[in-house]
Amino acid sequence: AQTVTQSQPEMSVQEAETVTLSCTYDTSESDYYLFWYKQPPSRQMILVIRQEAYKQQNATENRFSVNFQKAAKSFSLKISDSQLGDAAMYFCAYGSSNTGKLIFGQGTTLQVKP
Amino acid sequence: GAVVSQHPSRVICKSGTSVKIECRSLDFQATTMFWYRQFPKQSLMLMATSNEGSKATYEQGVEKDKFLINHASLTLSTLTVTSAHPEDSSFYICSALPAEETQYFGPGTRLLVL
């Protein structure tokens, strides 16, 4: 069975600074996807970034980028130039290509200080 | 972008009654939808996978007679919580899966059973 672990329950960053959220996963599948979702206080899940496992190049979306280390089964999220609106709970998720199911990590609450 | 709606956003009911939650993909068709449950400050737990035209697949520990799922069309899945009890109070979130392996989430439904 697949598992996803986020070892940082809470993180804090100063506005305009950079922060990295950690995520590790375990799987025996060869084809899969990895995601970071953001859940603000409204509780709407918002896709931040997605990575296909077969791609070596790290995904980037504006201020958000990932460090995907497939051999180490690590998938961290870097947020650059942090903004107050980035404050939310962030979930790392593993997506199975076979079933389409998502397995979520425990989440990391990010606080952005002005 | 891909938009998923849920209705109602919030419902309060008496113990023993049944509650139906609708999940709609507004601008795309989804042969597969998912239902999650989320307790405060916790992660999303997958309850079941809903496939259009076939029976839902439930995760281990989820009572299929308690949580009835119907996927009547390519844009609509419903979750009915039957004979609801206070322990069923939670935040229920649906997601829809278009072709590109990225799940898009509804805004969630907060259920309170008195």
Question: Any overview of this molecule?
Answer:
The complex is a heterodimer of chains A (114) and B (114). With 114 residues, chain A is mostly beta strands. Chain A is built from no helices and twelve strands. In chain A, the strands form three sheets. In chain A, strands 2, 5, 6, 10, 11 and 12 form a six-stranded mixed beta sheet that branches. Chain A has a four-stranded antiparallel beta sheet with strand order 3-9-8-7, with no helix packed on it. In chain A, β7 (60-61) and β8 (64-69) form a beta hairpin. Chain B is built from no helices and eleven strands. Chain B has strands at 4-7, 10-13, 19-25, 32-38, 44-51, 57-58, 67-73, 76-81, 90-97, 104-105, 109-113. In chain B, strands 2, 4, 5, 6, 9, 10 and 11 form a seven-stranded mixed beta sheet that branches. Chain B has a four-stranded antiparallel beta sheet with strand order 1-3-8-7, with no helix packed on it. In chain B, β7 and β8 (76-81) form a beta hairpin. The mean pLDDT of chain B is 93. The chains are: A mainly beta (114), B mainly beta (114). The interface between A and B is medium-sized, with 24 and 20 residues.
